[in-house]
Amino acid sequence: MNNETKKYLIVGALIGVLNALLATIYLADRPIGASTSYPFLASIIFDLQSSIYYKEIVGAGSWEAYFLLGGFCGALFMTLKNKSFKFELVPNLWGELKGKSKLKRVFFAFIGGFILIFGARLADGCTSGHTLSGSMELAASSLVFTFFVITSLIISSKVFYGVKK
Amino acid sequence: MIVAFIAGFLFAIIATSVKITTFDKIISFALLKDFSVAKILLFCNINL
Q1: Which residues of chain B have pLDDT under 70?
Q2: Helices (DSSP H) in chain B: which residue ranges?
Q3: pLDDT tens-digit map of A106-125
Q4: Hey, which residues 11-70 in chain A have their CB within 8 Å of chain B?
Q5: Are A73 and B36 within 8 A, CB to CB?
Q6: What's the number of CA atoms in the CB half-sphere (13 Å) around residue A133?
Q7: Residues A70-105: pLDDT tens digits?
Q8: Which residues in chain A have their CB less than 8 angstroms from residue B37's CB?
Q9: What pLDDT, in 10s, does the model give residues A10-37?
Q10: Which residue from B minimizes the CA distance to A137?
Q11: What is the DSSP letter of B6?
Q12: Interface membership of A7 toward B (CB under 8 Å)
C-alpha cells in the first residue's frame, strides 16, 4: 500500500469515526448531512416558515446549516494554514476543458447546483446524507443512490466534458 | 448547534487533508484515467 492510498484509508476511517460518534445519542443523534440546510435557509429568506415542508425539515435543516458553517470555517482555516487561500471563479480543470469564461462558469454552476438540490430533495438526501451516512448504516436506499450517483457522474462527465487525452 | 459547528469544522479539516474531493477524482478518472478506482472505493466505502 503506497502513501497516497494510506492517506485515503486514514481520511475515510476518520470520517467514518466522526459520523459514528455524531450518530450516538450522546452527541447529536444525527448523521452527517448537508442538503436539507438549503431548503431550510431558502424558507427563511423567502418567508415560507408557515409551510408544512418547513416544519418537517426545520430540525435537520438548522443542524445542517450549522454543520456547513463549521465546514466553511474549517476549510478556511486549512487554506489559511496551508497558505493556499485564493479567490477563484474558474477552477483549473474547468478552465482547461471548458474555457476561461466566468459567465459560462457561473451559469453552469447555477444549473448544476439547481439540479443537485432538486435531486437531493427527490431522494430525501444528498451525497453526504446518503453516500457517507446512509452507506455507513447499510441503508438500501443509500446504496442504490450511491451506485447511481457514481454511474451518472462518470457518464455525465464524459458527455459534458467530452475530452480524450 | 455547537456540536454541529464543530463536526463541520472537523469534517472540513479531515476532507481537505486529501486536497481534492471524491467527485473530482471520479471526473479525473472518467476523463483522464489517472487514478486508481480502488482509492475512490476505499474512500467511499470505508464508512461501511
Answers
A1: 18-48
A2: 2-16, 22-32, 37-45
A3: 999 999 889 988 998 898 88
A4: 11-16, 18-19, 22, 27-28, 32, 62-64, 66-70
A5: no
A6: 21
A7: 999 998 998 898 888 888 888 887 888 888 999 999
A8: none
A9: 777 788 888 888 888 777 788 888 889 9
A10: B48
A11: H
A12: yes
- Report the distance separating Cα A125 and Cα A144, nearest Å: 12
Q: Quick check: A11 and A3 in contact, CB under 8 A?
A: no
> Among B12, A159, A125, A163, which residue's Cα sits nearest to residue A149?
A125
Residue with cell 464543530: B6
Chosen for mutation from B19, B31, B35 (greatest number of chain A CBs closer than 10 Å) is B31
Q: Which three cell numbers stand for residue A149?
A: 450517483
Q: Look up the ipTM and state it.
A: 0.81
